[in-house]
Amino acid sequence: MRNFANRFLALILLAMLSAPVNGQLYEHLSGPYGGGAKMYEGRNGILFQYSGTSSVFYRSLDGGTNWQLASLPTHVTSGVFSVGADGSLFLLFFNEIFKSSDNGLSWGKINLPPLPSVEKITSLSDGTLLCFGDVLIYRSTNNGQLWTLTNFGAGIFVDFHPSQRPGWVFVTTLEEIFLSKDGGQTWSKFYWDYSLGPLVDFAESPKAGFFFSGRDVILHLDSLGKLVVKTTVRKTTNGPVQMTLSTSGWLFAVEHETAHYSNDYGKTWNDFSDQGIDLAHFKYFFSSRSGTVFGIRQNGSLYRSNDNGVNWAFSAFGLQEAWVRELDFLSDREIMARTSDGLFHSSDKGKKWNLLAV
């Protein structure tokens, strides 16, 4: 095989490649596969990735192995994306709310509540809509035709977290957790700790209770809001902890660019061993309802594990976001590309790529 170290380096934007072939004009070529953005799960196990900065929206119909570009509402160039407990997709674009009930195949606009600006929206398992803005939460049971004001009005809002329990939904602020047990009609304080900082992620186990990640810590609370464990992943970073919980009860966490896992609900933590893909440098984890755990590395590469992180496989086919290090044009159609994920080959000017080696 040719020695790529002696070939020219190619600096490439994330989404597209440009290169001259046989002295012709520059062409735009699709890049080899890799990359990944924050993940979400919709209805029937369909997975999504959305990048608000580049407005790239991908959908996977096979549990995250292969990805295809999906459509956003026509004039939307950015926005806040979320998935409700009933599987509805939402996209906030300035003061417009778009909703999809068919996994992103079509989008429709819903009416706004009487707020100067909308910051977050979610749906509960029965289709109830909850919308936050200007320290207030509005509620709608008829798809936004009529909104009613709830009794919430505290703190700097962070996010909605619908529970698996019917009618339950949490709200996190900078240092407090609020709970509604009646579908968002009334709210009460569930837990507070003024050393937490912004609460980043939420996870729930039918057996173990609720998990919230904040600055330096992960909280494990029971159904009454009693603290079970306040665990420190790393003790010195004073930074936010990103967290997910697999269906088998393993916690995965990232703090200060280092990944860890716990098989006892956060009582003890372990570092990942090196399995050839630099596991310690995952920056984000996501667990699907089927039990698959996804990890995005620091360079953006997407991997998946079906055995709680013991083994990982490349899972970014179709995601044209690879970090390309070197290119070699073998002919006007045939291209070799070395990326952070391995060696790729294309025989059709980059329309399709095959992963040859990692």
Core attributes:
358 residues, mainly beta, four-stranded antiparallel β-sheet, globular, disordered N terminus
Instruction: Name the structural class.
Output: mainly beta
Query: Reading side by side through the largest sheet, how are the strands ordered?
Result: 3-4-5-6
What's the count of strands?
34
Model regions low in confidence, pLDDT < 50 over at least 5 residues = 1-24
Overall mean pLDDT? 83
The main sheet comes to:
4 strands, antiparallel
DSSP strand content: 35-45%
Walk me through what this model shows.
The structure is a single chain. The protein is mainly beta. It has no helices and 34 strands. It has strands spanning 16-19, 27-30, 38-41, 47-51, 56-60, 68-69, 80-83, 89-93, 96-100, 108-110, 120-123, 129-133, 136-140, 148-149, 157-162, 169-173, 176-180, 188-192, 201-205, 209-213, 217-221, 227-232, 242-245, 251-255, 258-262, 270-271, 282-287, 293-297, 302-305, 313-314, 324-329, 335-339, 342-346, 354-357. The strands form nine sheets. It has a four-stranded antiparallel sheet, with no helix packed on it. The protein has a four-stranded antiparallel sheet with strand order 7-8-9-10, with no helix packed on it. A hairpin with a 5-residue loop joins strand 11 and strand 12 (129-133). The radius of gyration is 22 Å and the shape is globular. Mean pLDDT is 83; it is low at 1-24.
